[in-house]
Specification:
This protein is of the alpha/beta class. It folds into two domains: about 200 residues, D-Maltodextrin-Binding Protein, domain 2, CATH 3.40.190; about 100 residues, Periplasmic binding protein-like II (D-Maltodextrin-Binding Protein, domain 2, 3-Layer(aba) Sandwich). The chain is about 45% helix and about 15% strand. The chain has a five-stranded mixed β-sheet with strand order 2-1-3-10-4, with helices on both faces. Helix 6 links the parallel strand 6 and strand 7. Helix 2 crosses helix 11, helix 11 packs across helix 16 and helix 12 packs across helix 13. It starts with a helix and ends with a helix. Its main location: periplasm. Belongs to the bacterial solute-binding protein SsuA/TauA family. This is NitT/TauT family transport system substrate-binding protein.
């Protein structure tokens, strides 16, 4: 009888342990479709949130899709092909200016500076911006944030992009690096890791940072349609909380540790290059340390767009930016 009693107690104990686990496993995991405008080390906190399980802790599964081009990300959001977009904030302004009835709202900032660098074909010991006068400059696509920031910085240093240099803007984003490598341009505006790879291979030399020159802007943010945010407040809050956890993790860890976490997302890039890129972005404060997109940054963005002649109209911060969720999480 005692033997059967012991067996019964063991079975009961097992049942007590298993039931909560089963209940936990049966909790619904919500899949969120995220469209990222490019796949870049510049977006390190997003990949950290995935790899460190911060989204999973919030009951979210991320379906991440590369959607090249800000216009394509906006199309995906508006047509319900994606729930959340990771793209430059200028795209939300373009959509609003077209009179969209369902505005696209910025709710969590990921990067807070431009992510491009000025690369010279020749090694320059003491670079001066005036050295760009009369050269051929291979820039980014017209109307995008990299090109607008590029022109803003050139003008800041007294250079007229249209008159003082030969500006090339007709090369697709994906082909800019190869175009420079094949001999086009004396200088080029490049993202990482292409800039560092050029330098490592001795085919170009980083001489300046557009991010350091242009100041803080909401360069890349997570955004969603206003209707989606109203219908899915809890999801947006969980998503933002996961991003904030990742931002704090990135802030507290060194470039080597971050590079090791990012490696699965950039298998074709040497770990040394990843570490070098992360260190450069951390050093110039490109990674936002919290998700709040403040009004000063928003106005700086519109000043840059206006200077480039690409601002359709000024739109108030409160109209296209939601900081309530991020502020709630920070508390």
């Amino acid at each position: 009888m005692k033997k059967w009693l012991k067996v019964g107690l063991v079975c009961l104990l097992a049942a007590i342990l298993i039931i909560p686990l089963a209940a936990c496993n049966n909790e619904e995991v919500q899949t969120i479709r995220v469209a990222e405008v490019t796949h870049s080390i510049f977006y390190a906190p997003q990949y950290v949130a995935i790899e460190k399980g911060f989204f999973e802790e919030e009951g979210l599964k991320i379906d991440l899709t590369l959607t090249p081009g800000g216009d394509k990300v906006m199309t995906a959001l508006i047509s319900d092909g994606a729930d959340i977009g990771l793209v430059g904030s200028e795209t939300s302004i373009y959509v609003a200016a077209q009179g969209s009835s369902d505005k696209v709202i910025n709710f969590a900032q990921l990067t807070q500076t431009d992510g491009t660098f000025l690369v010279s074909r020749e090694k320059i010991e003491n670079f001066d911006w005036n050295q760009l006068k009369g050269v051929t400059f291979l820039g980014q696509r017209k109307g995008g944030m990299p090109q607008m920031v590029g022109e803003f910085v050139l003008k800041k240093h007294g250079i007229d992009p249209q008159a003082d240099l030969d500006l090339i803007q007709n090369v697709d984003f994906a082909n800019i690096t190869s175009a420079f490598a094949s001999g086009t341009g004396d200088f080029v505006q490049l993202f990482e890791p292409q800039a560092s790879m050029m330098e490592k291979e001795g085919r170009g030399y980083i001489v300046a940072s557009f991010g350091e020159e242009s100041g803080h802007v909401p360069y890349t943010t997570f955004m969603a349609k206003e209707s989606y945010m109203k219908e899915n407040k809890e999801i947006i809050e969980k998503f933002t909380r996961a991003i904030y956890k990742a931002q704090k993790w990135v802030e507290k860890h060194n470039a080597k540790e971050i590079a090791e976490v990012l490696q699965p997302h950039f298998e074709d890039t040497d770990i040394e290059i990843i570490e070098m890129v992360v260190d450069r972005y951390k050093g110039q404060g490109s990674y936002a340390t919290d998700p709040i997109l403040d009004e000063k940054e928003w106005n700086n963005l519109q000043d840059i767009m206006d200077e480039a002649g690409e601002l359709p109209k000024r739109i108030d911060h409160s109209s296209l930016v939601n900081t309530e969720i991020a502020e709630k999480i920070l508390k």
